[in-house]
Amino acid sequence: RYLILFVMIFFHSKKCILLFSTDRIANTQHRSLDFENEKEIISTITVCYAWSSVKPISGYPFVWWFATQPEFDGQGYGSQLLKYVEEDFLRDTLKASAVTLGTSARLHPWLLSIYEKRGYEIYAEHESDDGDLGVIMRKIFTCFVNCIAVYFLFK
């Protein structure tokens, strides 16, 4: 079953569609969010819910898939979509206090600094049998950090 919602947005003076779909496959739940123009998907992110995973990496939602079409690289579509997923979807809608994602430190080393600039920190590392270094990164959402600080300040 698929639940699909369309949201029209304007990005760099171009009309794009942000497409949400929820997939349910054998006890696994995830949500895919896509930027589309009139012809194709520009960028996509799939979030897996930690509470529906058989073997969760953490108690936080996990960005399982994130990609942008090469011809749209460097135009900000992926960054805008990730910001929307982090702030509007995960933090504000699901009330998640953090998000995790995984990447390869050896196959895609440039991604570590990109995610670190966006507020992610290394949460765990795993050396695989083929010599790759898998890295799990976590981003704690600022509003939750500030709320916790205020709570302890006035406690």
List keywords for this structure.
155 residues; alpha+beta; eight-stranded mixed sheet; globular; disordered N terminus; disordered C terminus
Mean pLDDT: 75
- Beginning-to-end CA distance, first to last residue: 46 Å
User: Which structural category fits the helices and strands?
Assistant: alpha+beta
Count of alpha and pi helical runs: 3
How would you sum up the major sheet? 8 strands, mixed
Helical percent range? Answer: 25-40%
Strand content: 35-45%
Q: Which geometry do the CA atoms define?
A: globular
Radius of gyration: 17 Å
> Unreliable stretches, pLDDT < 50, 5 or more residues?
1-17, 19-28, 148-155
Characterise this structure.
The protein is of the alpha+beta class and 155 residues long. The N terminus and C terminus are likely disordered. The chain is 25% helix and 44% strand. The longest helix is centred in the middle third of the chain and has 17 residues. The chain has an 8-stranded mixed β-sheet with strand order 1-2-3-4-5-6-8-7. β7 and β8 form a beta hairpin. It contains 3 helices and 8 strands.
Task: Please describe the topology of this protein.
Layout: E1 2-11, E2 14-25, E3 28-36, E4 41-48, E5 62-68, H1 77-93, E6 98-104, H2 109-117, E7 121-127, E8 133-140, H3 142-154
Parallel strand pairs: 5-6
Antiparallel strand pairs: 1-2, 2-3, 3-4, 4-5, 6-8, 7-8
